[in-house]
From TrEMBL:
Pfam families: EIID-AGA (PF03613). This is PTS system mannose/fructose/sorbose family transporter subunit IID. The keyword Transmembrane applies. InterPro entries: PTS_IID_man. The chain crosses the membrane at residues 171-188, 194-212, 219-236. Signal peptide: none annotated. It comes from Oceanidesulfovibrio marinus. It comes from the Bacteria.
């Protein structure tokens, strides 16, 4: 449990050379003291975690659990010491990419958008309860993955593929898009017609498509929007139409 609690400080000594490596060593230290009572052997094991380490913060408890499981087996001669570096190279950065895409890019955005939706609807208490629910869920996720990593070791790494996280992240992005449309509807000023709201939603979708698929610069799109806004009074006067 000391190792688990220390994972909350994995980024406290972030540096440009090893990224989160000092925080990783700090998290592993209580476990290494138990696994390697001999200070000399413990110093050798500690060196394995001083190399470059950087992953999504939500995955660090799972990885620390897996690393502790591997160190226990390495100390008993069941695994060679170089297996740890192999696991780090293949797992840490893969989980980092999944974390950025699914946990931050999808799930965190889902919480943000739904919270904004509650606030736009005037349900402030619901937004607070919703935030507390996700905060507690995150702590349970960290604790449960840490325990699973320590108990199952490498088997958990193989089992992660069955979670199908990438596809779940894609589905959640679609749901986020629908939530964003609903949020725009709630935030749209009163007195504006529905076709104006629809045009705004379509324009936002076109903006996202041009940036993500056609790689059009965001700055250029913003300049186009500002130019249109600046020319809007002239267009209204010339066409005799109120936008």
């Amino acid at each position: 449990m000391s190792c688990f609690l220390r994972t909350y400080f994995v980024g406290a000594a972030f540096n440009t050379r090893g990224m989160q490596n000092v925080g990783l060593v700090f998290s592993m230290e209580p476990g290494l003291e138990v696994i390697y009572p001999d200070p000399a052997k413990r110093a050798v094991a500690r060196q394995r975690y001083l190399s470059h380490y950087n992953t999504h913060y939500f995955w660090t408890p799972l990885l620390v659990g897996v690393f502790l499981s591997l160190e226990d087996k390495i100390s008993k001669g069941l695994f060679p010491a170089n297996v740890l570096e192999s696991v780090k190279d293949t797992t840490v950065y893969t989980l980092s990419a999944i974390g950025d895409s699914v946990l931050t890019g999808s799930l965190l955005m889902f919480w943000s958008l739904t919270t904004a939706l509650f606030l736009a609807a005037g349900a402030g208490w619901a937004a607070l309860v919703w935030g507390l629910f996700w905060f507690v869920s995150l702590q349970l996720f960290k604790l449960s993955t840490f325990l699973m990593g320590y108990k199952e070791g490498l088997r958990l790494i193989s089992r992660l593929r069955q979670w199908n996280l990438i596809n779940w992240g894609r589905r959640l992005k679609v749901i986020n898009a629908l939530i964003l449309v609903l949020l725009l509807y709630l935030l749209w000023p009163e007195g504006k017609s529905s076709w104006q709201w629809l045009a705004g939603a379509v324009a936002l979708g076109l903006f996202a498509w041009l940036v993500s698929r056609r790689h059009v610069s965001r700055e250029i799109m913003v300049l186009v929007l500002l130019a249109f806004w600046w020319c809007l009074p002239w267009l209204q006067e010339s066409l005799g139409v109120a936008f």
